[in-house]
Each structure stands twice: as structure tokens, then as C-alpha cells.
Amino acid sequence: MGAQRTGRWTFWLPAAYSLLLTLLITAPLLRPGYLLLRDAVSTPRSYPTDAALGLGDAAPRAVPQDGLLAALSTVIDGGLLVKIILLAALWAAGYGAAVLVRELLGVPLVAQLVATTLVVWNPFVAERLLQGHWSLLTGYAALPWTALAAFRLRTTARARIAPNLPGPFPPSAGHATDERGETTPRTDADPTAAPPRSDRYRTWAALAGCLAAAGLTPTGALLAGIVAVTVAGWRRLAGVLTLAALASIPWLTATAVSGVAAEPSDPAGVTAFAARAEPWLATVGSLAGLGGIWNAEAVPGSRTTPLAAIATVLLLAVVLLGIRRVAAADGDPGRTRVRRILLVLAAAAVVLPALAATPPGLAVMEWLVVEVPGAGLLRDTQKFVALAVPGYALCAAAACLRFSDSARAKWSIGSAGADQPSEGSAESRTDDDSGSASRRAPAGEAPRWAPLLAVLFIGALTFPLLDLGWGVSGQMRAIDYPDSWSEVAGRIDGPGDIAVLPGGMFRRFPYSGSAPVLDPAPRMLPRDVLQTGALPVRGETVTGEGARAQTVEDLLLTGGPATELARLGVGWVVVEQDTPGPHGDSAATLAQLRQVHSTPELTLYQVPDVHPRPAPEHRSLVVAAHILWALLLIAPLVAYGYSSLARRFEH
Question: What is the pLDDT of residues 59-100, one digit of tens each?
């Protein structure tokens, strides 16, 4: 009973600890209200407009995220839905790290908690929360689970099994190693038998679900796809690439049928979105410390002081203490290989974005975004530092055992004599002739100093970044929209797209705080809202793909004729009156329109004799792609049910 109780604690405590860290970060969001911070826009209800499906003028950067919210917000409040996804993502990231290090390293519970801390409580999470990239964090959360699922694909290989060999990180129970270093599950009936077909289906389905969850945004799909391809190995490359493509099919399909892929991105975005050096750190140091986002305003206060350098030194010290142990060969070549792959991936995730921020790197990136369709997805290079986190988690967990092993080895040599094997040797791992057991701690048992080291490492990772707590010092909080938004949405009952004033895509509302926020109109209103896609970054403007939206905005700001608005397919104009921004000579145009509704915050105008644009030809195809992605998302549940039924019939 005692062993079973300990096993339950090992399983549940990392999950509970990850939930605790998540709640410490997101506590201000738990009150009723909506997330409205920079790029994060949650609304009570979203609509399945063409733009939400990726068929607007701009590139489908928020697909299938917007389509999912449009579908589910008909049955659940959209603000609550975003909160649930965000909380689930942060929790899953931390718990996934614990499961990953337990599977690949066999480390005890305290080491798993250190890995969880590193993955949840770090500058990358803080900066992406402040930038409003809640959906990107779902891709971040999927990385440890994707690595784990891809690793377990190696257990599906039909290969001759070699016996387990002892090592510092014993493989999980029920697994063995084949001649090529592939880990393979044991079965009691036949140690050379392949796993049951139902188990193989379930493993592939688990990877499919991980990739689909990461694919809530295009960047998340790319991050998880890189992990899956590198970890799963070449023998499974075709299958993994197929799943990665299916997980990305909503935005791939929308990009293909809308023709946006043929348009080059603005090369000015490369410099604007390049990784940034933080105080007392070069760019490579900022990236190695999991920071360096391009927006200097979207950072916790601690990252603007020398604490940024202290936090980076402490983080890298924890990582470096465990790196040798993670890279060391053990009795399972398959696990060793995967751990080394994740270490190489971590190094590349730091070095390559750092190189991309140098003058030669910027030149290469500018050529890519101009000449290669879709390469604009790569311009925010700091996002890719997320790929370092699984490797960092392994190192942090292994660091907890470093000094403990050294102390035990010295004690063994000193007490047993020079002619006796040390604890780390092969001889010490087996019983001697008299039947005495090895002094080596059993797999999963914490060495004497491991809990103390774990507490020390958790403190080193959290204290320099204490302002990540409580919604990053209150910057991330729930807000309430004025009732005028729902009133205006209910009055839009005719054809035509919607133009908005003032010009630009960002707003500063009295209820949204001091940080600029994306205009909520595209998600709040029931028809397509024209947006230029132009982004003000570091004092410059990066142009977007919305050519028609730019034409309409210029027409309004210069006081053009209403007939031209109608010809361009604009049926409505919404004036947001409680935010600063350019209005130009728009009063001349508005005087030609019919005022439908007015409140202190919003005024709605209708354009007469509008010529609505025809519906996109391939809308049904894009909807089908979203449905396929959703099916992929629930694939693990379906496979688990099938596997359970198959086992029941087998027995």
C-alpha cells in the first residue's frame, strides 16, 4: 500500500504543482471579464466571417484560432473560452515537462518539480503573455507532449529486442532497447513481439492530437512539427510529416485559395521583429535566458533592470549543471539519442535566432520574406526559442542529482577501499556473492541532497522573476466591454463589409489600460471588418497585405465620396469615439451616410446602395479543413476508446 500511495503522489503532485504555478500567474483573469491586451482580444461572441476562416485580405495568421472561437462561442462565452484555453496551456506545459523528464531520465519527484518550474515560470511565458500571444502558448505547451509522443513512436518499431542495460537513468518499466537504439515495449507473453496494433494506433493518435493542439496558430504548428520530426526519427518521417501537414491544413488551405501566399511580406518586418538584447545581456544572452522579445514594452519590469542578467545567469547555471548527465550514454541508446536531439535543438533555438539578428542574418531573412512565399511566418525569430525549453527541462531535472551522485561516489570509494568498485560502476549495480544489495539508490528514489537542491533551484528560477506572478504584476487582467458593442452588433443587419475609424489597427480604450490593444471590432461585429494589417513597431510601420482595407481607410481619411465606399463593398462604418487615432477629413464622408445608432463610445453608419462582394468560391473547402483539424484534435480520445475496446475483446 505504501508503494502504491507513493506512486499516486508521483503522478498527481507534479500536476497539482503545475496548476498552482498557473493560478499564481493567471489569478487576475479568474474574475468575470475579457482578456484585452495588445494582440490578445477575447469577446463575448465571435462570428464565422471570411476573415475568421482565413479568407480575408490579410494573411491567415490567426487560423484556426478564430474559427474555433467563432464555432464554440455560440455555446460558451468567448472570454471564458479563452481563459480556459490559456489556463489549460500553462498547466499542460508544466505537467508535460514533469512527464517528459520522468520518461526520458527516470528522475525522482523533486527533480520533476524543478522541470515544471522552469517550463512555466520563465521570461518566454511572461513576454508572450504581455504581448497577448495566448494561442501561441498552446503550441508552447504542446512541445513536451509532442516530444514524448514522438519518442514513444520508437516503441512501435518491429525490431529484435536487446535486454535492458543498467545506467544512470533507467528506462521506464516495460521498455527495452533494440539493436539500433530504438526503445521497444516488453510484453510478458513474448519479449520479441511487436506492440499490439491498438497501442500503435493510440501512439500515432497522441502525436496527431499534440500537433493539432499546437496548430491553433501557424507558428505553434511549425514549432511542434520541428520537435516531432527531429525526435521521431527518419523511419517515421513520412507519417510525421503527413500529420504535421494535416494539423496545419486550415491555414495552409486558406493561404492557398486566397492567393496571399503569392504576396511577399514587407522586409521592414525582419528588423522590426528581430530578437532584442536586454539590459546587461547581448542578444544571444537574452535568448539563452528565454527572453529577448522584439517589443521592449511587453516585458516584466524585472527584465528592464540588471535582474535580467542575474536571472539569466541562474537559469543557465541550473541548465549547465545537468547538461552532462542528460547527454551521457546510459543503458538505453534510444533514450540517450532523444535526449541528445533535444539538447541540439535547444542550442539551435538559441544560436539561430541570435544569428538572424546580426546584419548578415537580417539580410538573409529579408531575402527570404521577399522571395519565398510564406516566409513571413519566420520573421519573429524569438518565438523559436521555445524549442529550447524541452532540453532545458531535462537539464534542470538532471541538475538535482548532480551533487548527490558526486557525494555518494566519494563515500563509496572512501569506505570500500581503492580495490572496490564505486557506485557508478557496472559491478556496483549488481548484488555481490553474499547477496547484499547495491548501495545505488533505486530508480526514481530521490538521493539525500536532491530535495534541498530542488528547493534551491526552484528559488533561483522564480525569485528573479517574481513579477511574473499575479498577471505579470497586474498587467494582464479581465476587462468589461461597454454595452454599446453588443448594441451596434445587433444593428448590423444588411450587406457589405465594415470600415472602422479612427485609422490603424490598435486602440487605447479607457477600460483597456495603458497598453495599446488590437481593435476588437473584427471579433465583436458580425461581418468582415477591413483591417490594413499595418503594424507600428519600434517607431516604424510594417505594411500588411490588406490592399483593399488600405484603400478604404485612405478614402475615409481624405473625405472621399460615399459612392466609392459602396463600390468597394463597404456597407457600414463604425466610429470608435473613446480612443485616440487619426480621423482626417472623414467627417465629409460620414455626412453622406445614414446614422443608424450612436452611443458615447460608438457610432454606426450605413452606406447606401452598397455593392457587396461575392462570397469566396472556396469557403466550403476551408470550412472542411477546419473540421478535419478539429477531428485530428480529438483523435487521442477516439484512439483511446478504440484501444480500450480492442483490449476488452482480446481478453
Answer: 888 999 999 999 999 999 999 999 999 999 999 999 999 999
Tens digit of each residue's pLDDT (9 = 90 or more) over 211-255: 999 999 999 999 999 999 999 999 999 999 999 999 999 999 999
Residue type at 277?
Answer: A
Please list, in sequence order, all residues whose beta carbon lies within 8 angstroms of the beta carbon of residue 361, skipping any fewer than 6 positions away.
355
Which three cell numbers mark 332?
Answer: 538505453
Reported pTM: 0.89
Q: How confident is the model at residue 407 (pLDDT cuts 50, 70, 90)?
A: very low
| 204 phi, psi to nearest 5 deg | -65, -40
* Burial bucket for residue 470 (CB in 10 Å: 0-12, 13-18, 19+): middle
d(CA 221, CA 203): 19
309: closest CA among 344, 347, 282, 341? Answer: 282
pLDDT at residue 160 greater than cutoff 90 = no
Helix (H, G, I), strand (E, B) or coil at 574: strand
**Is the preceding peptide bond at 421 cis, omega within 30 degrees of 0?**
no
Tens of pLDDT, residues 603-612: 999 999 999 9
Segment 364-383 mean pLDDT:
91
Q: Which residues contact 287 (CB under 8 A, 6 or more apart)?
A: 275, 349, 350, 353, 354, 382, 385
Contact of 372 with 129, CB cutoff 8 Å? no
Contacts of 143 (CB under 8 A, 6+ apart): 93, 96, 214, 223, 224, 227, 386, 387, 389, 390
Q: Which helix H or strand E contains 570, and what residues bound it? A: strand 570-576
Give dist(CA 25, CA 62) in Å, integer. 24
- Identify residue 11 by its one-letter amino acid code: F
DSSP summary character for residue 463: G
CA distances from 372 to 168, 249, 266, 268 (A): 46, 19, 12, 15
Spatial contact of 509 and 579, defined as CB atoms under 8 Å apart:
yes
Q: What mean pLDDT is predicted for residues 450-472?
A: 95
The CA-CA-CA angle for residues 12, 339, 402, to 5°, reads: 70
Q: Based on C-alpha coordinates, what's the Rg of the chain?
A: 27
Alpha carbons within 13 A on the beta-carbon side of 446: 18
Boundaries of every domain in the chain: 2-154+172-399+623-650, 483-606
User: How far is 137 from 119, CA to CA, in rounded Å?
Assistant: 11
Percent of the chain with pLDDT over 90: 71
Residue type, 402: R
